[in-house]
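Colleagues,

For the teaching module next term, I've prepared a clean inverse folding example: a structure given as tokens, and then the sequence designed for it. I'd like students to try predicting residues themselves before seeing the answer, so please don't circulate the second half yet.
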């Protein structure tokens, strides 16, 4: 049986740095599926 102390080193926050860079690139290209659509005024 695992304890929280055993699992703690395996926890990572999201988005990770790499995911953030990838999402930013998708936003620049205009096809990011990870963000809600921009409301048109």
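(Answer key — instructors only)
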């Amino acid at each position: 049986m695992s304890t929280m102390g055993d699992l703690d080193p395996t926890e990572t926050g999201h988005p990770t740095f790499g995911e953030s860079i990838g999402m930013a690139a998708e936003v620049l290209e205009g096809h990011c599926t990870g963000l809600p659509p921009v409301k048109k005024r």
